Amino acid sequence: MDTFPRLRILLIEDNATNRLVVTRLLERVGCEVEQAEDGLEGFELLGKRPYDVVFVDQQLPKLDGDELIRRVRSGEQGKGAAIVPMVMLSGNAPKCEESRQLASARVVHLMKPVTLAMLRSAIDAAIAHSKG
C-alpha cells in the first residue's frame, strides 16, 4: 500500500461533502491536508506556504480551477507555487476533457467520485509530471 507520510496537500474544493471525503482518504495514506473553500482562497494560500501537491476542483466560486492553474503556472504566486504538482478534480466529463486539452501536461485530471486508489495514482502521476 502506497503511503505518503507528511506530504502537504492543499485541497481546493467548494463542496463540503467532497472536501470531507477527499481529506479523509488523503489522511488515510499519511497526508497532511489544508483546505480552501473557493478558488480565490486557494490561490491566496498558494502564495503563503509551500505544498507538495495541490488538488483543485474545476468548478469553483470566485476563481475557477482552470484560471487558478493558469495564474499559478504563470508565476503569479511565486516560483515555488508555479511548479507545484497539481491534480484537477472534475465531476463533469465533457468539461474535464475540455480542460485537459487546454492544460499543460503538468496537470493530472481526475474524475469524481474518487477512490483511495485513484488518489494514490493521481499523487504519483502529479509528482512524476512535475519532475519530467
Q: How do the strands and helices of this protein lay out in sequence?
A:
Blueprint: E1 8-12, H1 16-28, E2 32-36, H2 39-46, E3 53-57, H3 65-73, H4 79-82, E4 86-90, H5 93-102, E5 107-111, H6 116-131
Parallel strand pairs: 1-2, 1-3, 3-4, 4-5
Q: Number of folding domains?
A: 1
Helical fraction equals 40-55%
| Strand fraction | 15-25%
Q: Please give the alpha-carbon distance between the first and last residues.
A: 24 Å
Which class of secondary structure composition applies to the elements? Answer: alpha/beta
Envelope shape = globular
Here the CATH topology equals Rossmann fold
Radius of gyration: 13 Å
Annotated CATH homologous superfamily:
Response regulator
Oligomer: single chain
For the biggest sheet, the summary is: 5 strands, parallel
Describe this structure in words.
The protein is of the alpha/beta class. It has one domain: Response regulator (Rossmann fold), CATH 3.40.50. Helices cover 45% and strands 19% of the residues. It is built from 6 helices and 5 strands; from the N terminus they run βαβαβααβαβα. Strands 2-1-3-4-5 form a 5-stranded parallel sheet, sandwiched between helices. β4, α5 and β5 form a beta-alpha-beta unit. The longest helix is centred in the C-terminal third of the chain and has 16 residues. 31% of the residues are buried. The mean pLDDT is 87.
